[in-house]
From TrEMBL, chains A, B:
Residues 35-54 bind DNA. Keywords: DNA-binding, Transcription, Transcription regulation. Pfam families: TetR_N. This is Potential acrAB operon repressor. Residues 12-72 form the HTH tetR-type domain. One of its GO terms (molecular function) is DNA-binding transcription factor activity. Transmembrane segments: none annotated.
Length: 197, 197
DNA sequence: AGATTATGAGCGAACGATCGTTCATTATGT
DNA sequence: ACATAATGAACGATCGTTCGCTCATAATCT
């Protein structure tokens, strides 16, 4: 059944497997409490071989930070729709909450944030993707406001930032207590966002 | 000018000095990239002497986490006033924003958060003080709502949490770019909070 | 085609550095 | 004198990384 894999294919698969295993280790123990040996052992790979696929620990961390940032890009695509913009915003809130409130994602995000505080490379990748998401959200809010015709006293961009703040804050609370968002929490969140726009 | 200090006093001062130095190191390098030797060298203290004042690195981290948590307690006291509750809320927003947006505090908070993800002792101290602050803020919001007489569709407690989320989110953005909050940002924040209550 | 060379994945011992911690010893205030 | 603050060498463990090596595959040549 299984095709015979070429050398490049198995190498890519191996590399991917190492990254995924490293991510698990980092979530469980944090970047700097995870040794290369931990990753190698858990991935079923020799210690030295990791250095055949990655330049070093720093490169591994950077790669995982990039992967995490790219998850946001997927969310962003589903944002701009032609239908009711308010409904689209609501589904975005739900999707972003669901993503952020997964404990593994939350843990990794905090770890990346701590790392970004000292590593300019990581902070750049983090901010770039975030700004992109922010811009899309800003447009969405502008569209909603144009329809409702109000005269909001909070700039679109600030409003977009606040919206993400609300979702992320709730996400942290949920992730920390390792539960699912309750109906009440989700409703409160949606109402809060609606009040902002 | 300087009084002659008793032995116990110098010991306490020394201890305090070590804690403060450790905090600086932790902010700059993170908990797990800071060695005891780094702290000792920077504090002008011998390596072994640190273990005369602290049980070990873990204890040092826990102590700093506690100190950081206790900073919230001070804020909380100024919250409940008999005068205009809405004005009191506004000054709270300003004060909390000012506190959280200091880069050292922000960095330490993230570090503590990451640590709390794996250390139950730290997560407890963190949540305890935060719940206390949250309760005070909840009461404040309840008082405001009673005056305005509206029928809010967001529970007081959720509203309090969201308020902290907004302040903390903006704080992170400010701390990350190492600047002061602009007038526009502060105004947007206040307006957003007002919309929530 | 078959033979030959080049490539790089995979391995684990070994390296030097650094880690948190302990300990015997000295200095100092009471 | 006694208790304790202060010291830095020393310990074992672990860190990230490098090393020489094997071997299956890919590329090149005849």
């Amino acid at each position: 059944m299984s095709e015979k894999l070429s050398r490049a294919e198995t190498a890519d698969a191996r590399r991917k497997h190492i990254v995924e295993t490293a991510a698990i280790c980092f979530v469980e123990q944090g970047f700097h409490q995870t040794g290369i040996r931990d990753i190698a052992k858990r991935a079923g790979v020799s210690l030295g071989n990791i250095y055949n696929h990655f330049g070093g620990k720093t490169e591994l961390i950077a790669e995982i930070a990039t992967l995490e940032a790219e998850e946001l890009a997927e969310l962003q695509e589903g944002l701009t729709t032609n239908t009711d913009p308010l409904a689209a915003l609501e589904t975005f809130v739900e999707r972003y909450l669901k993503l952020c409130s997964q404990p593994e994602n939350a843990a990794l995000t905090i770890e990346i944030l701590a790392e970004a505080m000292r590593n300019p490379v990581i902070v750049e990748g983090f901010l770039t993707n975030r700004d992109s998401l922010l811009l899309a959200l800003e447009d969405q809010i502008a569209a909603i406001r144009k329809l409702s015709g109000g005269n909001p006293d909070i700039p679109d961009r600030d409003c977009a930032k606040f919206t993400l703040d609300l979702i992320e804050g709730l996400s942290m609370r949920i992730a920390f207590s390792e539960r699912k968002p309750s109906k009440r929490e989700l409703n409160s969140l949606k109402r809060a966002v609606k009040r902002l726009v």
